[in-house]
């Protein structure tokens, strides 16, 4: 039976892995970071992928699809787009695209490549992520972008005609957008034989990728005259990795990975030479808890540590701190979610601490609930995490799980996101690109028919598709054009008739961020008090409106935000997203109108989009339990909501997070009679009436 490490009793003890502790090797010697072009050029030439330059260019020239397999740190992301540019693939106004599953990776890889090429970011090298476009229509030749943004670009340019080569990076991650993209790119290739695809993937996935791109008979060989690229994919394996990363495992399983991570950090700081530490935990709550524990360290082993969080909703200024050089004599500790798992190079990082878990989406089509659940990572993820050390010098990785668990129990790859997600956004995207037979679409990994049917049902109820499952005009086309979750887009459309588009656009902008509150260490009480100053009886959405109004009345002042525990950078982002959404709304013919204080209009607009997330409080519940109307699932209001402990009878939630319970985040009160009005097919009156009288 496994032994468990008890927090506070002893520290986790590590053993090196049996292969001599060496996961990665290189012939290159350690180097410090390069400043100036010459040293950057030397660094480029040391990367394993450099030796394959000619082979890569030959394969891209002669094959429609090239799958490049290589270890993390071999230089695929930063070098291949440059090789292509140097070889002329971006001449005559053409462009090279490189997609990433994560926004942070897009930004950081683009700035690295810009630096290596000695050009200003946004000119020859640029990037686009949702709501942020740092490219120049005339100048940009290499463009980094999220796979989701490339999918959006297809709405205006279905054949992606401005790109000569599209590199889909980190394809093994099997993100939802990557899988949709791969299916669509395969289709585009038939219409544009001159388009070249490069799929960069970890070893295990390469064969299935090749099989996918090879799976159509029509794709084999060259054209009738023997011209053009070969249509069956080429696979190139890039041998060689970054620097040595010595891996250790705990001897016995740990029962509390946050405490184990903190004592590992302190022990590295105590015993190991200088070098930054990157710690992988699962989410902001974990990160806050670990930061708190580090701050409380009574033995003062934390002296000289600069502790920084890293997660997807973090404001840009805080993100920049993570990438900034570590002051002399100090050691940075970056505590991150899995957003730092792939494609990132954090120059100072020598040590990686991996808790072995991440937050993952799981959608249940029966209950129609998509949860973010803390679940074990795969071996592929663990290797990616270890690969964040050893990028510019040798490193060490401390895994907070046993080697036995890593070898025998951890799954080799995770389940593709498409098989564990709500598919509403995915279906509308395909529909808007004219793909009507969703069930027959050529997916790299098939989604479950139940999830597809659920998505079609919700889209039908939203009025996005008609009886023939085609996009409705104008509603369906309008919703597809707004770069937001279709439910949020529907809420914006509904606000037109309800005369509250200004308010609803503000709410949509706030919901597009993770949080607008500033939750510093030990300031939970002050944050709760600040929230009370804005709290609205109608719920969180209306509270956001109060905050935004206050922000505008303060002349968008940073000190006002500071005083009220509101994140100033988040508010600036809200303003920015708001401006973009207002422009889109105007283009779609939505009148920009304010309803002033008529919050019923706002609540009805939210209901129009989110009717499928309606819940009713349990009649005899003393602990604030709710039941979802559609799936009869037990859910609770999240403690961060202004309606926590208020427990109004009928509510609608924006999303669910699962910890020990299923918690509703961002909750608003509604009248039950609005549900059948908003979605008559979804809610029949008969279904609701008995509950109304209970
Ligand atoms: N910002 C940076 N500062 C210093 N060196 C960097 C930076 N970005 C990349 N490098 C160097 O380039 C190497 C290759 O990075 P690149 O992202 O191209 O690798 P990769 O093969 O795509 O790996 P991954 O799949 O992990 O992203 C890094 O290991 C590092 O040595």
UniProtKB/TrEMBL annotation:
Keywords: ATP-binding, Helicase, Hydrolase, Nucleotide-binding
Catalyzed reactions per annotation: ATP + H2O = ADP + phosphate + H(+)
Record bears the keyword Nucleotide-binding: yes
Source species, domain of life: Eukaryota
Keyword set includes Hydrolase: yes
Gene Ontology molecular function terms on file: ATP binding; hydrolase activity; RNA helicase activity
A Pfam family annotated for this UniProt entry: OB_NTP_bind
E.C. number(s) listed in UniProt: 3.6.4.13
PANTHER family per record: ATP-DEPENDENT RNA HELICASE (PTHR18934), ATP-DEPENDENT RNA HELICASE DHX35-RELATED (PTHR18934:SF136)
Name of this protein: RNA helicase
Gene: DHX35
